Amino acid sequence: MHTETDIKTKIKNYIIESTFDDVEKIKDDTLIFEEGILDSMGLLFLIEFLQEEFNLTTTDEELVVENFQSINSMITFVESKM
Amino acid sequence: MSTIRKPFSKDILHIENIESVCNEIIEKLKNDVTRKLQRRGAVIGISGGIDSSVCMALSAKAFGSNKVTAIMLPEQDSSNDSLLLAEKLASKFNITETILEDITKALEGFECYKRRDDAIGSVINNFDPTTDKAKIEIKQDAASNLPPVFSVTVIKPNGDVNSKLLPVKEYLQIVASTNFKQRSRMSMLYYHAERLHYAVIGTPNKHEVEQGFFVKHGDGGADVMPIAHLYKTQVYQLANYLGVPQEIIDRTPTTDTYTAEQTQEDFFYQMPFEQMDLIWYGWENEYSIDEVARVMGKTSDDIQNIYKNFERKRKTTEYLRMRPIF
Hints:
The complex is a heterodimer of chains A (82) and B (326). With 82 residues, chain A is mainly alpha-helical. Chain A has helices spanning 4-19, 40-54, 65-68, 71-81. Chain B has two domains: 18-105 and 180-268, Rossmann fold (3-Layer(aba) Sandwich); 109-173, no CATH class. In chain B, helix 1 packs across helix 2 (50-63), helix 2 packs across helix 8 and helix 12 (289-296) crosses helix 13. In chain B, 42% of the residues are buried. The interface between A and B is medium-sized, with 22 and 21 residues.
């Protein structure tokens, strides 16, 4: 069972490691796509990461900005699927 | 002296003096090929699509129909209509040398089809490439505030449709394997160009170049691209003026790459050309979101998201337009 802190740390570390971005730049409510931190390939790799790390599958219908726009949104999305 | 720019309108991209614009393109093409590139004619791949048709018509006017070699490069997934239309086009412009090069065997050699079908089959379990049709497409609206991602769609002979979001590994394998098609065509075009001491004419329009809807070293590999500065609706305007056969003008632009029929709108652009041209122009020329929204009959939020979508596409495809770094 993953706690909210676990999920947050794993997602944040993944984004920082995959983008080589400054840790200070990525807050929990930073708009990841709006700010250009991840692009469409970044989103695909993120979906793969969520599947491998939390064993969850994202469907076409779930691919909406509300589920992916920030680390906070992703935490809510991951928790809703567990 | 300051210039007053035109208010944004649905006619803003209409070419007023089409004859003079065509003549300028023809003169530049002639100069680029014969003076800058020092080549004596043009090789062009014709697909039966609007862009290659316009480029062929321009080349025939620039060099004369006896100095243009038109190559048709179908493969097993190409539509039969494409070949018929390409033949009709070459005949209309009296092109003396037209060559048919079926690249299916070359693609089999690269295992293009097998690699693609293996990737599709690992996402859609009961996919049978011998009977089913398949394509990849973006299902999100262009006004979505999330970057576009692809789904694979398989259509069974009985019409049943199965569609799934593509995982990254399979998406990349499908794209990489189908790109053999454009790269094989490029190799064949250069074979003929070198044999004749001609230049290869590239056919991408402005959207294809700037949004990255081309294959690096594939259809992006050419010596000169005469319509790369033109919006799609302007390409249609040229087609009408130059006398491109009406069947080609009336045909919906397709990718002609996957076994299932697929429009370019479904595959990549996410909106009709008529809208995309105008909104792209508005974005590129920094027209206000509210002004563009009012003229296009959309909400300001929609236009803002479409502007972001354009910005994202141009940024993420920068790699395709870059020359090797050294």
